[in-house]
Specification:
The structure holds two protein chains of two kinds. Chain A is an all-alpha fold. Chain A is built from seven helices and no strands. Chain A is 76% helix and 0% strand. In chain B, helix 1 packs antiparallel against helix 2. Classes of the chains: A mainly alpha, B mainly alpha.
């Protein structure tokens, strides 16, 4: 009769090496924060490149930034902030056990992420048509600076790496919708939603810095 | 387990989102009045810093979270600043500063 009943009470999502759901949730979250720190330092290298080259060629950055459309940059900033809001709402839905709301908010987030990528696509194509390619392929005559290609190499690296993160985020959220539809998530277990949300907010934070650094010079 | 997880109200989340939209507008509006160098950069980065702070604190829930996660973030940022600082100690003070690339 003294058989511990805890064994039977273990929910199916709880892995055997954790004491309880709380410990599992907190561990996953901490692991995600460690990963986000590596992401900050990963992008950090590019930010350092930006700072070094801007300190060497301040006038180049002002001249070249004119080629970036502030309007679409602003729209994309608003789109990403909106998507951060819907991800936060998705987590709230999961916490309240509203799985339909969770899926709706995830779909809105996926849509906003796609809008971001479509705008980014047209921005890139517009530059390619002018011959603005990165590095040695740079063939645009419109900027009277011999190092004009450097600004755009940095631009393509930073926005490109960020864009890859957005695409990965879209994939993760589609995966979340699939799992939600299978009934995996509830207010007792929504860890993947929480940590994907953390990832998505970090992608938003990085864009929050890229936007003024690239589009709003001058 | 969700008993003691912080759940933000929808109203609160919309408030945070609205604050971020307003700050985005502000950072664009500041460029319309020509702020002189280097203050335009300072203003732009400060507003971006406030926005990032709001996202990290209220969307990423660090305000209600275990403090260890905040420590992780600040440690990461400290090393990022170190990377900037040590690199600039070289690149800002070169006699023949600019390489061919």
């Amino acid at each position: 009769m003294s058989e511990p009943s805890a064994v039977e009470e273990r929910p199916s999502h709880l892995q055997h090496h954790f004491v309880d759901s709380d410990q599992q949730f907190d561990s996953a979250k901490m692991g995600m924060w460690v990963f986000l720190v590596t992401e900050i330092l990963f992008f950090g290298g590019l930010f350092v490149a930006y700072i070094v080259y801007r300190s060497w060629y301040p006038e180049l950055f002002q001249m070249a930034s004119v080629e970036l459309d502030t309007f679409w940059g602003t729209v994309n900033t608003a789109v990403l902030i909106g998507s951060s809001l819907t991800v936060a709402m998705a987590i709230r839905s999961a916490q309240l056990n509203q799985i339909k709301g969770l899926m709706i908010n995830l779909w809105i987030t996926i849509s906003l992420a796609c809008v971001f990528m479509v705008i980014k696509y047209f921005e890139y194509v517009h530059k390619f048509e002018k011959g603005i390619f990165p590095g040695e392929y740079y063939a645009y005559e419109g900027i009277a600076h011999e190092k004009a290609n450097i600004f755009f190499s940095i631009y393509y690296m930073m926005t490109g790496l960020h864009g890859i993160h957005v695409i990965i985020g879209i994939g993760l959220m589609i995966w979340l919708v699939v799992k939600a539809r299978k009934g995996v998530f509830s207010n007792k277990y929504y860890t993947p939603v929480e940590i994907t949300g953390l990832y998505w907010h970090l992608v938003d934070v990085i864009w929050i810095f890229l936007f003024p650094l690239l589009y709003l010079i001058d | 387990m969700s008993d003691h997880h912080h759940i933000s109200s929808a109203k609160f989340l919309w408030g945070v989102g609205t604050a971020l939209f307003i700050l985005t507008f502000l950072t664009v509006a500041v460029t319309w009045i020509q702020v002189p160098e280097p203050w335009n950069v300072v203003v732009a980065i400060s507003i971006a810093g406030v926005k990032a702070g709001i996202v990290v604190t209220f969307f990423m829930n660090l305000y209600w979270d275990a403090k260890f996660n905040s420590i992780l973030l600040f440690t990461g940022l400290a090393f990022f600043l170190l990377m900037i600082g040590i690199t600039l100690l070289d690149t800002l003070f070169r006699i023949d500063p600019i390489p061919s690339f």
